[in-house]
């Protein structure tokens, strides 16, 4: 199996997971309609591995973000969703400059320059 990286966003109402290869190609995603305070993080991981050809033992690093990032025990690091949005946008769509994130509990508008957060507002 190939080495991969996991990003898991544990929000207030949903948990999203994405896996990237060592070359930063998207290997797959999973969305679970449950968020913080549930077993959604484990369900997302189990679902992803069941539906992919990948194995947990090949995961090089796991980053957690979102409302529940600090309680996820499987993470190598926790990063704010605002920073994750900026880095992901820059990777997949580098010409874009604005992100609007409508979440389960808040909405964020993020201005991105060169993959970094230049400014943001949250309700």
Describe this structure in words.
- The structure is a single chain.
- By secondary structure, the protein is α/β, with parallel strands linked by helices.
- 20% of the residues lie in helices and 40% in strands.
- It has 2 helices and 8 strands, in the order E-E-E-H-E-E-H-E-E-E.
- It has helices spanning 40-51, 81-92; strands spanning 4-10, 15-21, 26-32, 59-65, 77-78, 98-102, 107-113, 116-122.
- The strands form 2 sheets. Strands 3-2-1-4-5 form a 5-stranded mixed sheet, covered by helices on one side. A 3-stranded antiparallel sheet has the order 6-7-8.
- Strand 7 (107-113) and strand 8 (116-122) form a beta hairpin.
Q: Which descriptors apply to this entry?
A:
globular, three-stranded antiparallel β-sheet, 123 residues, single chain, 2 helices
In brief:
The chain has 123 residues and is of the alpha/beta class.
How is this fold's topology laid out?
Elements: E1 4-10, E2 15-21, E3 26-32, H1 40-51, E4 59-65, E5 77-78, H2 81-92, E6 98-102, E7 107-113, E8 116-122
Parallel strand pairs: 1-4, 4-5
Antiparallel strand pairs: 1-2, 2-3, 6-7, 7-8
Reading side by side through the largest sheet, how are the strands ordered?
3-2-1-4-5
The structure class reads alpha/beta
In percent, how helical is the residue content?
10-25%
**Poorly predicted segments:** none
Order of helices and strands: EEEHEEHEEE
Main sheet: strands, sense, barrel: 5 strands, mixed
Mean pLDDT rating:
93
* Terminal residue distance: 43 Å
Number of helices: 2
Radius of gyration: 14 Å
The shape, in one word, is globular
Strand content: 35-45%
Find the count of extended strands (DSSP E, 2+ residues): 8
């Amino acid at each position: 199996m190939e080495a991969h990286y996991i990003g898991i966003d544990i929000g207030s109402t949903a948990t999203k997971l994405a896996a990237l290869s060592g070359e930063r190609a998207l290997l797959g995603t999973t969305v679970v309609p449950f968020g913080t305070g549930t077993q959604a993080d484990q369900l997302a991981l189990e679902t992803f591995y069941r539906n992919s050809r990948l194995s947990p033992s090949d995961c090089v690093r796991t980053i957690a973000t979102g409302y529940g990032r600090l309680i996820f025990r499987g993470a190598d690091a926790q990063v704010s969703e605002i920073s994750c949005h900026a880095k992901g946008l820059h990777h997949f769509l580098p010409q874009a400059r604005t992100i609007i994130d409508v979440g389960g509990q808040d909405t964020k508008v993020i201005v991105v320059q060169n993959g970094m957060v230049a400014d943001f507002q949250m309700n």
